């Protein structure tokens, strides 16, 4: 059983179990209130699922792609929870979770996943079905592009949210497979707006 958190598009938190599925999930779509709601959502899903912290095996967190401010809130919350509970923190590409939910029981066919990157751009990833372990096969991405630059695919999902339940179930499959989780590094895919100023040389 694990706790899953994603804040790459809205804020979503869930408690999932490989054997019993989704035990609880709570989400807020507002992209401006990640810091205000993430703690409340964690408390809500733990209460609804009846899970105690000592029973959790890990925390799964969506590493994006996503905007800087929102993404770092969820990752900071997940890191803090995992550290306090003394359990592993597992990174999951948020688009992989969307792909898993989109494929459902039919794990075949090409699929394009996009999410809003703001500034008239989109994050995108292309998939080629699920592998024998039920893990999405990502063929390209995540990447950042203007809408007219994104490759076409027979099936496309323009997602407005990422389900922490799907993210958690994917993390459970990764754990069971023995594969390494994604690095705990945020996928911003865009240079920060603020850069350090270069000190001017003073001459006499």
Automatic annotation (TrEMBL):
Classification via PANTHER family: TRNA N6-ADENOSINE THREONYLCARBAMOYLTRANSFERASE, TRNA THREONYLCARBAMOYLADENOSINE BIOSYNTHESIS PROTEIN TSAB
Sequence ranges assigned to domain Gcp-like in this UniProt record: 33-151
Entry protein name: tRNA (Adenosine(37)-N6)-threonylcarbamoyltransferase complex dimerization subunit type 1 TsaB
Pfam short name (any one): TsaD
Protein's organism: Naasia aerilata
């Amino acid at each position: 059983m694990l706790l899953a958190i994603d804040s790459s598009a809205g804020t979503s938190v869930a408690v999932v179990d490989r054997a019993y599925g989704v035990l609880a999930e709570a989400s807020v779509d507002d992209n401006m209130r990640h810091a205000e709601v993430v703690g409340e959502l964690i408390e809500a899903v733990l209460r609804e699922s009846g899970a105690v912290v000592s029973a959790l095996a890990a925390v799964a967190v969506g590493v994006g792609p996503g905007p800087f401010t929102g993404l770092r809130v969820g990752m900071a919350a997940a890191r803090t929870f995992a550290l306090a509970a003394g359990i592993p923190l597992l990174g999951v590409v948020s688009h992989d979770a969307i792909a898993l939910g989109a494929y459902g029981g039919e794990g075949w066919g090409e699929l394009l996943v996009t999410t809003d990157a703001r500034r008239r751009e989109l994050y995108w990833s292309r998939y080629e079905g699920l592998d024998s372990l039920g893990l999405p096969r990502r063929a390209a991405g995540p990447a950042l592009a203007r809408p007219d630059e994104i490759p076409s695919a027979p099936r496309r999902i323009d997602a407005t949210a990422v389900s922490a339940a799907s993210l958690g179930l994917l993390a459970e499959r990764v754990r069971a497979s023995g594969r390494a989780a994604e690095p705990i590094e945020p996928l911003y895919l865009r240079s920060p707006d603020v850069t350090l100023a270069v000190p001017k040389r003073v001459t006499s």
